[in-house]
């Protein structure tokens, strides 16, 4: 295999024939050989940081495809998953076929909510007040597409918003599935996907689906639950490759947690009303009362928790509030109403035909609601080592519980098998050390663990600079916003567009957008704001703007990673503050408390390495290829005035460091504009 890998990447090899201007990269070849070396090791573990430009995707793909093993590749998001499957994987497959004359079977797998449910689409009849004209147009688009699609994957629907309400009514999420009792079970897109997976050599998933699969396996092992007949989502494979491994911890925290929202409860109550007439007449009255009581008491629980925690120093934590007499009484009423609904559902077992399957699915949803409520409201979460808290977005509050020690969750549920596992990302190391990552994912006592770091192959000193104004107020100072906006105006004038303004909070982004947009308009620059359009559409408009007037994109965390804008279109990245997580974050609080109990510094072991990696991700938006050049401006003087700033600086690439506007203007003229003029 090692000879074939070298042939794959050779100057006259199959890859060179397909890529114009191809030049072999030593680090890419070394990484492919390292992945190949771990393939035959039982419980082998390899962690690789491969900087942007290394070509890590092709490196691990060629080793995996040349092996005789079945491979699962998991990446961070659906967007990255689609990119890997539709761009990098076909190229690798073609090259490997030229070497071996063997064609591997591949499959893209996503969570059930990404697929259309044929049964729900066939029986869907929206009420007049449910949707507006725009949503009805989406419904027409989905209906037309449903008769043509071969996969049922919503990614094929161009322009459908991520949070489209209509899709939540039509998707194939598990809790509403009728399973093998559904008359369309054999034609179901999810069924077909799972059957195809059994014969696939390479399966591409995302971290959320990987965690969901482990959760289902745990549940199936502990109970003989009814369902669609599957005890797992992803079939067993010989090798795992975890790409974008830095985001696995957050995915596991979310997907091994439990949550309940008022929307979930109301949606369940609405669906339960649809089987109201199937109940025996003598059960209907108590069923209706229980439904109303379930929604009413859950709303009251939420309102009381919000009231009781609003002025608390740790206002997101709700464990003490749950012990208050008025809430204890409401929880008792809520549980009793749910149990009454379950009793009433038993009386519908005599229903005929397909309704039996619908009632069975509804019964499972109510049982899950009761199980989750008991876990959240009683001692289940605390005993399991979870933290319970309130979280909210623009639309609603949710009661959630998440594991405090996610490393132990990962160690027990994901890394206990014998299959070799490769972890890789462009951002894993802090101060050139992988130890923080190793600890956070539960591999710190693994004697089979191998690690490797390959830096990005860019000339950072000549192509990029890190600009930090030294005489700048700290973010907590009342004049920070004024100084930030003044510096942002200077940087936008200098760059003439091609600029990302990355913020650590949504509120700061909105405030700066309102104040800076008129100034950028005067400069002839187009302003774009995260949330005004889907992410890919926003990036496309940003790149197109650079061909005319120039653009400035205001964005928060979702644009700090997974964004790939190459060339002159992105030449300036401005970051407002060092990305320390908010101390009010309840999961973060609980993890800090756990470290302090262990006599460890929460700042040194959690806050600092986490923030350093986040900054590394944001800075990594600038140089994406050897043809790129530009400036990263971090407008937080703590980076150079605080002792801990050295941890950040030693984690970042070796960019030229500048502190004066005059120095920056000289660098921009010579090293940035001069570079782009030369390559054009």
Describe the 3D structure.
By secondary structure, the chain is an alpha/beta fold. The chain folds into three domains: 1-104 and 201-255 and 427-457, Rossmann fold (3-Layer(aba) Sandwich); 258-402; 460-679, 3-Layer(aba) Sandwich (Rossmann fold). It is built from 27 helices and 17 strands. The strands form three sheets. It has a seven-stranded parallel β-sheet with strand order 3-4-2-5-9-1-10, with helices on both faces. Helix 22 links the parallel strand 13 (526-529) and strand 14. The radius of gyration is 27 Å and the shape is globular.
Give me some keywords for this one.
single chain, 680 residues, alpha/beta, Rossmann fold, 7-stranded parallel beta sheet, 27 helices
Concise structural overview:
Helices cover 49% and strands 12% of the residues. The chain has 27 helices and 17 strands. The strands form three sheets. It has a seven-stranded parallel β-sheet with strand order 3-4-2-5-9-1-10, sandwiched between helices. A seven-stranded parallel β-sheet has the order 13-14-12-15-16-11-17, with helices on both faces. The protein has a three-stranded antiparallel β-sheet with strand order 6-8-7, with helices on both faces.
